[in-house]
């Protein structure tokens, strides 16, 4: 997963990037670093700071809050966006449930990606973030009525 063209093709299959142009994909691929994760590896820790955004190329992970599963993350999905958007701590713990191949963007690169591809990526990102916040509120027993 080291070649730019290969990373472009991997990103193209992620729903978040499905409307990006080739030029946008190529710029995002240029920012991404490949990373593997083993089963059981913890990629985000609830309540801890975090500086990376992850795109799942292959494999799966579980998001949990206070030890309770709140979501599953499979190929083509992403995680780690929340702490980068609001500057707060990780909202959940994310643990690999199978061997994983990931593409990772640092905080700076995540921000560059958004400024590069704002109109195509931002609405999709926001939709997922809103859904996850809803699920986190439900998990915490907080009514979502504001
Ligand atoms: P962040 O808070 O940065 O780190 C933990 C990540 O877990 C979070 O970003 C989301 O990407 C992810 N996450 C939080 N809640 C859920 C959920 N309900 N389903 C799937 N992923 C989630």
What report would you give on this structure?
With 146 residues, the chain is α+β, with helices and mostly antiparallel strands. Helix content is 40%, strand content 27%. It has helices at 4-12, 22-31, 81-86, 107-140, and strands at 33-37, 42-44, 52-58, 61-65, 68-73, 78-79, 93-96, 100-106. A hairpin with a 2-residue loop joins β4 and β5 (68-73). The longest helix is centred in the C-terminal third of the chain and has 34 residues, at 107-140. The chain is globular, with a radius of gyration of 15 Å. Adenosine-3',5'-cyclic-monophosphate binds next to β5, α3 and α4. Adenosine-3',5'-cyclic-monophosphate binds at residues 44, 50, 63, 70-71, 73, 79-83, 90-92, 94, 132, 135-136.
What's the topology here?
Layout lengths: L3 H9 L9 H10 L1 E5 L4 E3 L7 E7 L2 E5 L2 E6 L4 E2 L1 H6 L6 E4 L3 E7 H34 L6
Antiparallel strand pairs: 1-8, 2-7, 3-6, 3-8, 4-5, 4-7
Helix pairs in contact: 1-2, 2-4
The chain binds adenosine-3',5'-cyclic-monophosphate.
Adenosine-3',5'-cyclic-monophosphate (CMP) binds next to strand 5, helix 3 and helix 4.
């Amino acid at each position: 997963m080291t070649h730019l063209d290969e990373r472009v093709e991997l990103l193209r299959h992620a729903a978040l990037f499905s409307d990006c142009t080739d030029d946008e994909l190529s710029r995002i691929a240029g920012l991404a670093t490949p990373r593997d994760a083993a089963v059981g590896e913890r990629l985000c820790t609830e309540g801890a700071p975090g500086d990376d955004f992850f795109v799942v190329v292959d494999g799966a992970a579980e998001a949990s809050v206070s030890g309770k599963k709140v979501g599953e993350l499979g190929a083509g999905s992403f995680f780690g966006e929340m702490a980068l958007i609001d500057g707060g701590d990780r909202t959940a713990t994310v643990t690999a449930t199978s061997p994983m191949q990931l593409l990772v963007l640092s905080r700076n690169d995540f921000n560059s990606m958004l400024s590069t591809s704002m109109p195509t990526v931002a609405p999709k990102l926001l939709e997922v973030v809103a859904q996850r916040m809803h699920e986190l509120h439900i998990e915490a027993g907080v009514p979502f009525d504001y």
